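Page 47, continued from p. 46.
Same chain as before, 365 aa.
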Amino acid sequence: MIPIARPQLGEEEKALVWSAMESGQLAQGARVAEFEAGFARYVGSPHGIATSSGTTALQLALLALGIGPGDEVITVSFTFTATVSPILHVGATPVFIDVDPVSFTMDVGQLEDAITPRTRAIVPVSLYGNPADMPAILEIAARYGLPVIEDACQAHGAELGGKRSGSWGIGVFSFYPTKNMTTGEGGILTTDDASFEDRARLLRQHGMRVRYVPEFLGYNFRMTDLHASIGIAQLAKLPAANARRHRIAERYDAELAGVLIPARRPDSVHAYHQYTLRVARRDDFLAQLAERGVGANIYYPLPVHRQQPFRDLDASRVPLPITDRLTEEILSIPVYPGLTDDEVSTIIGAVNATASELGELPRDA
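Result:
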């Protein structure tokens, strides 16, 4: 069975982790600072604040903006639950709008109508590594004086108009093991605002600028030097790893048949965290791929507004027809850089054979 993902770790990661262990400095030390600077430089952002996860990076961003009870945050439901849970954890209310059926990202045409006097931020998601339409979102946000936090947790190296995800102002990334690069577990917040960065750093470490002297109530959202050591090695490999993802995606684009392949804007660079198809009879398609030895998966089978922790929200009752339809049709196939050319050929053959047997496309194709 070809798995849907396979973390790529080697001797470089082992050597850096071991040297960090030998140094005796394990928690948010020099390695974390080195990783923060390197990742911020890669993204094209002045500041990077490493965290314990992508989820805590987003929560940290919301807290640093002062968002809390009574506030609304506009986002999408076609995403992983961690996009929305931090909004609730700070006491704010998520407001869902639908996504575009081609890009799978926030439908900018619905954004302005969702803004109310209680709106305090907008959180678009660059899903699967496809950047959201940040210029259009930022233009609307600027008219209303609203900050934008790009959920770039799947968009390491994605670009739009020559700007990388995470460099549009505030961005958050995850380094979970199956992402384009990993720290084992971890996240980072990027920003071009020095005062925002200062508050986020204080919030990350118990509100303390001076050890044992908190200036306000904070949190422990820190990254360890062990995790940062993995991240330093992974960051060096990221350009080559993403290039391999692109070559695999180019083969899929050219050779897959009978399915809807992912689209991207002409001025964008897709990071291909996932290569996500739209298919008819999705569950049958998934089962037949498994029989043919291909480990596909569904990201995500249930939109956030229909998940148990969010069902009682007023936002869960807003119609999201594109979101509901996509969650019945999407299917991701392996695209990680460790795939061999033979494995890619096997995946293409399995998808095409399954599509031929099922003989349908999604109803709006």
